[in-house]
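Hi there,

I know you've been waiting on this one. I reran it after we fixed the sequence typo, so this is the corrected version. Both the input and the resulting structure follow.
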Amino acid sequence: MTPSGSKRSKPFGPLWPLSVVDYTLTNALGRGLAASRHGFLSHRSGLKPCDFEGVHFVTAIGRVDGIEQHRLPEPFKAYDGRNNRLAHLGLLQDGFIGRVNGLRESLGAQRIGVILGTSTSGILETERAYTMRDPTSGALPPHFHYRETQNTFATADFIRRILQLEGPALTVSTACSSSAKVFVTAARWLKAHLCDAVVVGGVDSLCLTTLFGFHSLDLLSEKPSKPCAIDRTGISIAEAAGFAIVTPFDPKVSPLCIMGAGESSDAHHMSSPHPEGVGAAMAITGCLKTANLAPEQVDFILLHGTATRTNDIAEDRAICQVLGEGLPAASIKGHIGHTLGAAGMMNALTACIALEGGFTPGTLHTEIIDPSIRSNVALTPNIHKPCRTILSNAFGFGGSNACLLLGLHRDA
């Protein structure tokens, strides 16, 4: 019996696969699918020298142009902040809102859920508010709206309201694995018939907390990051927004699908992965198991590939444990930077672009691969490499690991 006392209308469905009905992404390469597709195919980077407010050290960042000038609709004035502006910019691309509107009309607003992945949400607004505290009382300025901007749920709430959806909504905040894990939660909701479709997203925006935080850990590169390179020196912090609509799998609706997923938490260290990639290997193994695929059926890997000394090695060791050596792989961090809570979504949607476009991206800025890395890291895009399956990795602080397997349905 459901909580309302009525009988469930249909039995629980399978967890996987899920259909990816529609998707869009916005990052340092530009707004919408075409900008990212062109950037990957032309091997172009959106990373630039840091010009973000209040930052005086040298590093490269992935900034999305136009956020400062963008304004939210008047009814959402209280939600105004960099993260919500970025989310709105992302939603406006590729006719995505129109597709959601169509689903809302056919399924009903209460049958569509929202799950957002983010790491810092709108913390920039809190940073600014603290610089404007009352010098006597310490009170924050009256125009600061914590609930609508900084609260971790703020952007999910904003998305839900602006899309006029009334289904369940939540935020996943597990560092850099956040927006990969949203697909897993969506699968569980759909299996339990809490909703018939889910808008999943990943949004993270630039702020001083992450820039100064990673700088204090000596993890920032002065120049655009070089994933897996022998001379890599660290990450390039960036911002991005990406969204997808997922439903129970139906090849008539879309041949593009999430075939399976794996999660793990190795809890080896607060900021460093297990040196042998134990947790990452568990997530990859779980992903293959849920997708019912053998290692040799994986065509390509989109690496988490942050370009730090330890992370790239640990990820490579995890891959080699599960999938063997020499599997083609690439990191897009040289194109768009490390988008933290949005990184899992950026990888997943890049996999969608590659699967539908019949190509695989390369690893930008890297010239010589670290000889201790045994995966076959591609340095340039392969525009004549159609894939049926792409593994997408997202590994976060504290050992929070997530892996997705995306593919085109075999009968498509």
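Quick highlight: Confidence is low (pLDDT under 50) at residues 1-9.

Best,
R. S.
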